């Protein structure tokens, strides 16, 4: 579905990412894990075509992606950030925006918006202003908006980090249920191993802009591969 080969990214003469290789298969959720400043969100931006790598190549569904990324490719992805970037309109309209841009019928939009608000437990907030939502409610609406466009690849950049522990746990459980049903191909960035363990089938641990380890969450805990990886994972054991 998505592949990156030998990706390097430099900003202001500083190397942010160095020689990154990455692949994502259909239906897979891959986690990008690491401490603050490790390069995981930077890699997500490269993979989601929000930034252009200094060197290396990107492939989407087997096709090489040019620097000027076609709109047809951009419309096949959805991104949810740490801060829920909602418009100052009703909840329903926030979830519907991507569907309206794609020219779907009003009836299709209504059904799909209602379905995804229901899946994330916020259908009762449909007519409420998005600006009046709590942090957890806003993130649920953001996820409903992303899933509503039925993306080929979903990118989640620290979607739980601004939430308190009970809110985070509830959303993690609901998102796991949605993944099980939809098999949505996903890249999940987090600094918390619990997020990755609950949702990802495979994870890359980034340290200092490089991939330090890769494997399933249990494999990484049992065999950290490097001493610095073991030190990082020790915080979660």
What does this structure look like?
The two termini are 32 Å apart. The chain is 38% helix and 25% strand. A 6-stranded mixed β-sheet has the order 6-7-8-3-9-10, with helices on both faces. A 4-stranded antiparallel β-sheet has the order 2-1-4-5, with helices on one face. The model has no long low-confidence stretch (mean pLDDT 92). The longest helix is centred in the last third of the chain and has 18 residues, at 165-182. The radius of gyration is 18 Å and the shape is globular. The protein has 237 residues and is of the alpha/beta class.
Number of strands: 10
The rounded Rg comes to 18 Å
Order of helices and strands: EEEHEEHEHHHEHEHEEHH
Q: First CA to last CA: what distance?
A: 32 Å
> Which structural class matches the secondary elements?
alpha/beta
Q: Helical residue percent?
A: 25-40%
**Mean pLDDT, all residues:** 92
**Helical stretch tally:** 9
Can you summarize the main beta sheet? 6 strands, mixed
Shape: globular
Question: How much of the polypeptide forms β-strand, as a percent range?
Answer: 25-35%
- The main sheet orders its strands as 6-7-8-3-9-10
Low-confidence stretches: none
Brief summary:
The protein is α/β, with parallel strands linked by helices and 237 residues long. The chain is built from nine helices and ten strands. It has a six-stranded mixed sheet, with helices on both faces. The protein has a four-stranded antiparallel sheet with strand order 2-1-4-5, with helices on one face.
């Amino acid at each position: 579905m998505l592949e990156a080969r030998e990706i390097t990214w430099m900003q202001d003469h500083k190397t942010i990412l160095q020689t990154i290789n990455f692949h994502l298969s259909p239906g897979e959720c891959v986690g990008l894990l690491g401490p603050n400043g490790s390069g995981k969100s930077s890699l997500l931006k490269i993979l989601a075509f929000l930034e252009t790598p200094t060197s290396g190549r990107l492939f989407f569904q087997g096709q090489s992606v040019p620097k000027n990324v076609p709109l047809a490719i951009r419309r096949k992805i959805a991104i949810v950030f740490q801060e829920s970037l909602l418009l100052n309109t009703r909840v329903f309209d926030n979830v519907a925006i991507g569907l309206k841009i794609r020219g779907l019928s009003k009836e299709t939009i209504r059904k799909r918006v209602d379905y995804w608000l229901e899946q994330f437990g916020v259908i009762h907030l449909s007519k409420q202003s998005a600006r009046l939502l709590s942090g957890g409610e806003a993130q649920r609406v953001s996820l409903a908006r992303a899933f509503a466009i039925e993306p080929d690849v979903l990118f989640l950049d620290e979607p739980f980090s601004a939430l308190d522990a009970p809110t985070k746990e509830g959303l993690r459980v609901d998102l796991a249920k949605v993944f099980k049903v939809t098999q949505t191909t996903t890249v999940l960035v987090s600094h918390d191993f619990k997020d990755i363990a609950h949702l990802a089938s495979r994870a890359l641990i980034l340290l200092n802009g490089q991939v330090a380890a890769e494997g399933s969450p249990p494999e990484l805990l049992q065999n950290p591969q490097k001493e610095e990886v073991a030190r990082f994972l020790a915080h979660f054991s």
